[in-house]
């Protein structure tokens, strides 16, 4: 029998009927924006969740942190060596600014100290000072090579009385000068008006040049907002942790600076937290997903558009940092702070370990990288995106 066309019983909402789609929003009403959320942070929520039992005595852990920070602090000899080299290099650069003479390969706008040397967070054994040289002229590779040779020759004359050998090495970021175990890295960049005129065939990489300008902004912000001694100590401890645990390597020095500043000062009382609480808080925040997709994370204070710092990492790296922090935090919760601070053999993030009769097994990755797309599919997708933008 041929059935007549028409609505089924109950209309479109009847059983087996089609469900209506989402209703369109009224004219002029924008759809709700996605709001990233901050992960649970006990330091911010402690007034809402009062303690049932008094806090456990953490004095041994605090003393271990202070001792480790002291061990990581450069010795007086190391500090004197890098200070001596920085002073001599700056004198050479100042003379090129004031009286360049016959040197015309480039013109220097200004020189700024950046990095761990400027911030006071250097680690013993890694005595490196960074100087950003901002050029008025374009940073061509040929000009940078001549600039490096000129500084090297003038520095040799300056240290001739000390009878010390100076080593020169060129890099993609500029060049390095080493003497008596200390190193000064010259990071070359240019003034902002020149950025749009850079040619990748002749000039240094534009991303590197912009990162050097960002380093100047980071140094200025740090000097104004993060000069507390506890922040510097925590940064040194976090960099040491990153150096010994492979899963934390994606964290950049700038991410660690902001993480330490947030852990020390971002609390209801606006008072600096003790180093042991702040250290544990860093691991808790990373474990809770502070640097995962959908998190409010930490807004970069030196960039616009509310850029969150963790977006510089890939999704795979974000997952790696989170699961590594979770494993380290579990070991710390069961009294394994000595392994975390002083060594990592065998690796607790890849091998099972036992702490106070508690077995801590390494976590597995939650993110699976999708299969690589074929070249044809990528080209079709790119063409579709271009059409949509047009």
TrEMBL record:
GO terms for molecular function: DNA binding; double-stranded RNA binding. Residues 23-383 form the DZF domain. The keyword Nucleus applies. InterPro entries: DZF_dom (IPR006561), DZF_dom_C (IPR049402), DZF_dom_N (IPR049401), ILF2 (IPR052134), NT_sf (IPR043519). Residues 1-28, 365-390 are annotated as: Disordered. It comes from the Eukaryota. Residues 9-19 have a biased composition (Gly residues). It is found in: Nucleus. The keyword Heme does not apply. One of its GO terms (biological process) is positive regulation of DNA-templated transcription. Residues 365-376 have a biased composition (Basic and acidic residues). Residues 377-390 have a biased composition (Acidic residues). One of its GO terms (cellular component) is catalytic step 2 spliceosome. Keywords: Activator, DNA-binding, Nucleus, Transcription, Transcription regulation. This is DZF domain-containing protein. It comes from Megalurothrips usitatus. The lineage of its organism: Eukaryota, Metazoa, Ecdysozoa, Arthropoda, Hexapoda.
